[in-house]
Amino acid sequence: MKKYIDIMETIDIIIRMKIKPFFLILFGLFSVYITFADTGLFTISGDVLVRVNRNWSEKKIIVPNNIKIIAEGAFAGRQYLEEVVLPDGLLVIGGGAFFQCTALRTINIPKTVIAIQSGAFDCCENLRNIILPENIQYIGDYAFRHTRIENIIWPKNAKYIENMTFNKCSNLRNVTIPDGVESIGEKAFSECINLENINIPKTLLYIDDMAFVGNKKIKDIIISQWSNEEREIYRLFEYFDNR
């Protein structure tokens, strides 16, 4: 069976983030048509997990050790899925890979992952705990929108928090943003109605519109030391409802 694979988002990451390992991945993907192999539970192409076959309804899935990329939408809509075990050596979690896996509660992100693409865990409304390894260099917009994540420590090598990354995460209470992060995108933390604590690193250059709109419970905003020449600190408070 042959099928077209859209790799434009991966190319965009290469251009924006200058992630050298992606060139090795693209070398194997850069033909328009790729032959897929059905292995029962999965459809796999080389080291790419293309999809979970629809006639399976496992609550726990262990992804094979040789997989480097989980393709766009590979697990999307699997509402029975509660737990996924990802292998060490995984590099990329594709756009919408786990979109609307509404029963998903537990997933490990291996330390080898360097990119989580747009909407990867969007609307995983029972996902409560996730640890983001420091090696991650890119996390796409609305990657964790409408989940039940309670605490987040952002990876220090991911310089940009994209638009709507944590939009409508109603259980989110504490956010730690390390030095190195340069921007927070539009509505990145909007409607996180229980968000209480957030720190703002000294490296932050830009906060987009409505980044924190709809958050009325924020108690503590910890701002790393900035000089007036570096930042207009007072503008930060334009983005909170309870300033």
Structure description:
The chain has 243 residues and is mainly β. It contains two helices and 19 strands. The protein has helices at residues 8-17, 21-29; strands spanning 2-4, 33-35, 37-38, 42-45, 48-52, 60-62, 69-70, 83-85, 92-93, 106-107, 115-116, 138-139, 151-153, 160-161, 174-176, 183-184, 197-200, 206-207, 220-223. A seven-stranded mixed beta sheet has the order 3-4-5-7-9-11-12, with no helix packed on it. β4 and β5 form a beta hairpin. The radius of gyration is 19 Å and the shape is globular. The termini are far apart. 37% of the residues are buried. Mean pLDDT is 81; it is low at 1-9, 11-36 and 227-235.
Summarize the structure.
The longest helix is centred in the first third of the chain and has 10 residues, at 8-17. The protein contains two helices and 19 strands. By secondary structure, it is mainly β.
